[in-house]
Design a protein that fits this description.
The protein is an alpha/beta fold. It has helices spanning 18-27, 40-56, 75-84, 98-111, 155-160, 163-174, 176-190, 196-211, 213-218, 221-241, 250-264, 272-292, 295-304, 310-321, 325-331, 333-336, 340-352, 354-361, 367-377, 390-399, 409-416, and strands spanning 11-15, 34-39, 61-66, 91-95, 115-118, 131-136, 139-144, 150-154. Helix 13 (295-304) packs antiparallel against helix 17 (340-352).
Length: 428
């Protein structure tokens, strides 16, 4: 886990007068300069209003508006933010959702300044996270950052956000059905750190939103409030645990792989939560296959499966990831350095613990249940609806597991000698 200095719990306000409460909060920090970060869309619906409210209150403020058809948390926009921010102590205010929050949390962390989150949509679960997912050198990885001093969410702005953004938030939260299973799997087979209380908190937040899917889909204030509360609780769970395991498993690895491929091809990005929701349905197909395998089936698969070959894995990483391969190799060091004895021990553990693995698999609902919920929320339900091609989705199932040093169901399939592309055999 990434080590973090403990931070006090943030103040969280979700209300129609959140902007006014934000200004009052800022007024309680005399002598501080405020830097409002937004993009052209969020400046129009929220950032400009925050700037003007701070000016009207007599507080020193500057605005940074990131321009471009698509703002990404990468080297370009991180640099633009650093260059435009004044070289003095300040409080950043992120007026936006996932990408702007990640830029603000990372830049503020690296410059030794605090930041405040002002969500423009209930679209992601990372508002309170202590890490920032950034695209550096074409590879999406997580970097140490910081959580916000406070979150001020304007309820009217959230309710008026495009339905696609709200559906993406629902998809991001729904992705916990597979991330929690992967987390338990990694703990069982790879001795990854695990906290049952955090697991249960995350699951409760997810289930509350599943039960309210219709209200969320309607875009009502009650619905988006409940969704944002669930997303914030997921973020608090990551924050309290110390990394993203409670909320990010194989479904996120597929999403990151797709995002990297789209960037490489110069194509528009797809909403993070929309990708995660669809990816969760694909991963659920793999867990369904796990449920159907007996312990004897697994023993025979392990016997017939080729032994892991780290040298071949390195060749594969270099072929698939190109210039980003060196970074991926560092991420995968623990797996690539396994001795033959350690590999055999891991394979034997899989056989011995298969009943426990199936218990974990039974926590994942059928893929059809996931796609039905995504449809209720008004989001895309399969990779074609996302605008992806099979040539991108297939390799993500084979190579997406390299993006994080975690044992997920994708790693399990590889260990069993199974082809994870079987998730595509039953169109959703």
């Amino acid at each position: 886990m990434i080590s973090h200095t403990p931070q006090p719990d943030p103040r969280i306000i979700i209300a129609r007068d959140a902007v006014a409460q934000l200004v009052g909060f800022c007024a309680g920090m005399p002598g501080v300069r405020f830097t409002v970060l937004s993009d052209t869309n969020t400046h129009r619906v929220l950032g400009g209003r925050i700037e003007q409210a701070l000016i009207d209150a007599g507080l020193p403020v500057i605005g940074i508006v990131l321009h471009g058809a698509e703002v990404i948390a990468d080297e370009r926009y991180l640099t633009r933010t650093l260059v435009q921010a004044p070289p003095e102590p300040q409080v950043f205010i992120a007026a936006g959702s996932g990408t702007l929050t990640d830029i603000a949390r990372y830049v503020s962390f690296r410059t030794g300044n605090p930041f405040i989150s002002a969500p423009s949509a209930a679209s992601v679960d990372g508002f309170l996270s202590l890490i920032a997912p950034l695209v550096i050198g074409g590879v999406k990885d997580t970097y140490a950052a910081q959580g916000p001093l406070a979150v001020f969410a304007d309820l009217t702005t959230l309710a008026e956000a495009p339905r696609a953004l709200t559906a993406a938030g629902f998809g991001d939260l729904l992705g916990k059905v597979t991330s929690l299973a992967d987390w338990r799997l990694g703990h069982l087979l790879w001795d990854e750190p695990y906290d049952p209380e955090i697991d249960e908190r995350t699951r409760r937040a997810m289930n509350r939103c599943i039960d309210a899917a219709q209200d969320i889909a309607s875009g009502s204030e009650d619905g988006v409030r409940l969704l944002l509360e669930g997303l914030l609780e997921s973020g608090l769970c990551m924050r309290d645990f110390g990394d993203s395991r409670p909320a990010s498993g194989a479904e996120h690895h597929l999403s990151h792989f797709w995002e990297m491929q789209l960037l490489k091809e110069g194509r528009p990005a797809i909403l993070h939560g929309a990708k995660v929701g669809v990816a969760s349905a694909l991963i659920a197909q793999l867990y369904d296959h796990v449920r159907r395998l007996s312990q004897e089936d697994v023993r025979e698969l392990i016997r017939r499966a080729p032994a892991p070959d780290p040298a071949s894995d390195v060749d594969e990483i270099r072929r698939v990831y190109g210039e980003g391969a060196e970074q991926i190799e560092r991420i995968q060091a623990a797996f690539l350095s396994l001795t033959t004895v350690q590999q055999d021990q891991l394979r034997q553990r899989v056989v011995e613990r298969w009943p426990d693995i199936q218990t974990i698999a039974r926590t994942v609902p059928p893929a059809e249940t996931i796609t039905g919920l995504l449809a209720t929320a008004g989001g895309p339900t399969d990779w074609r609806a996302l605008g992806l091609e099979r040539r991108i989705v297939e390799p993500s199932l084979l190579y997406g597991h390299y993006l994080r040093s975690r044992f997920t169901v994708l790693k399990l399939f590889r260990l069993l000698g199974l082809d994870a592309r079987l998730a595509l055999e039953h169109p959703l």
